[in-house]
């Protein structure tokens, strides 16, 4: 029997008093919204399929989110979308609806170089990658190593190919990559007032001094991130808090220190509210169009609430300094990888762009000279490992495939018992030729299997088994 749910602690009284003062007549509706159940947001991973295709396939009742074409609310209260095989296949990412506004605001274009400076657990980073559509480069950075593992897992589950995953302080990135990104996202660590519906810890740990400390750290990160933006590029500042000290005030101080940036007029986002310059010290806010900031409030839209400020750097950028990788594998390793590729994949074999790190084989989205001496946690797509003259394909490679890109598949519908068995790590029985194959759910890759005399040995990662 599961333990009873613990009651949510009350909202901090100082927070309640401050929001009553700021919101006036709206405060009652706002505070009441924080007592309601959190909305469940589902963002279709367009690297795998278009939104309309998932709607036709979805086992859940979905309602569209107006500011994100690939975003939906899960309307079934008893649904468990995180436990469905489609989630394991990376067809969607479960994300707060208001967080889904980041990618439409930053608007990454295929071919651009994009940085998510504070990327874990990966919701916004994988959204940016989907908008790039395997063209260009995403750098997903998370300074906290304990959180970076989850970031890597989500980048791989979503099938992102053209990405570096790093774990560095933003200042070190700025020293190496000054003025090289078309677009940079700073989803800054904050006091987490937008987590009050979900997290008892967020309520218990909130203090006015935490708000002030977060504001100082946010200013520091934002100033460092600004150095990474090329002339003419975009910088998006985001928080999941309501405190003006962490939102409009941070943006105002940044603009005073960086006059070569300006607040851009955001695109129309249904449900969004303007920034509140009247909540900032008049001398600090004077002459700044802080109403161009974007706020989402949980009593006005479904979601936990977010703040965004889209900043444009003046000037015009030249050609991207990021060069494609031209490297090749050592001949013996290259022969093993090529033989596997031709056996298992219905894709042209890439002649260049390879790297061997110890036993691990990667396809790189950029020349290593562009990121040395930094050492990414993931320098690109993990293709597999070479051990004792054998090549073992990586789970990340299977999840990067689209339907039709594997030569041999073993397909089952989502409710088939074989899918549940595969996700638990069990072997399957299926006649057919020996060799590597991809186990798929309704045509979408879940992971590798290797068939030997009608028995499919399970290569689903041990760390992921039993999550469904």
Keywords:
single chain, 468 residues, alpha+beta, Rossmann fold, Archaeosine Trna-guanine Transglycosylase, Chain: A, domain 4, 15 helices
The first-to-last residue Cα distance is 19 Å
CATH topology of the largest domain, what is it called?
Rossmann fold
CATH homologous superfamily (4th level) name of the largest domain: Vaccinia Virus protein VP39
Number of domains: 3
Write the layout of secondary structure elements.
Layout: H1 13-23, H2 27-33, E1 41-44, H3 51-57, E2 62-65, E3 68-74, H4 85-88, E4 92-94, H5 102-106, E5 113-116, H6 123-132, E6 137-141, H7 145-157, E7 163-166, H8 170-176, E8 181-187, H9 200-205, H10 208-226, E9 229-239, H11 248-257, E10 261-263, E11 273-274, H12 282-285, E12 294-296, E13 306-313, H13 331-344, E14 354-357, E15 360-363, E16 381-387, E17 390-393, H14 395-399, E18 409-412, H15 417-423, E19 428-429, E20 435-441, E21 444-452, E22 455-458
Parallel strand pairs: 5-6, 5-8, 6-7, 8-9, 18-20
Antiparallel strand pairs: 1-3, 1-4, 2-3, 9-13, 10-13, 11-12, 12-13, 14-15, 15-16, 16-17, 19-22, 20-21, 21-22
Helix pairs in contact: 1-2, 8-10, 10-11
Give a description of the structure:
With 468 residues, the protein is an alpha+beta fold. It has 3 domains: 13-313, Vaccinia Virus protein VP39 (Rossmann fold, 3-Layer(aba) Sandwich); 323-406, no CATH class; 408-468, Archaeosine Trna-guanine Transglycosylase, Chain: A, domain 4 (Roll). The chain contains 15 helices and 22 strands. It has helices at residues 13-23, 27-33, 51-57, 85-88, 102-106, 123-132, 145-157, 170-176, 200-205, 208-226, 248-257, 282-285, 331-344, 395-399, 417-423, and strands at 41-44, 62-65, 68-74, 92-94, 113-116, 137-141, 163-166, 181-187, 229-239, 261-263, 273-274, 294-296, 306-313, 354-357, 360-363, 381-387, 390-393, 409-412, 428-429, 435-441, 444-452, 455-458. The strands form 4 sheets. Strands 5, 6, 7, 8, 9, 10, 11, 12 and 13 form a 9-stranded mixed β-sheet that branches. Strands 18-20-21-22-19 form a 5-stranded mixed β-sheet. Strands 2-3-1-4 form a 4-stranded antiparallel β-sheet, sandwiched between helices. Helix 6 (123-132) links the parallel strand 5 and strand 6 (137-141). It starts with 12 loop residues before the first helix and ends in a 10-residue tail after the last strand.
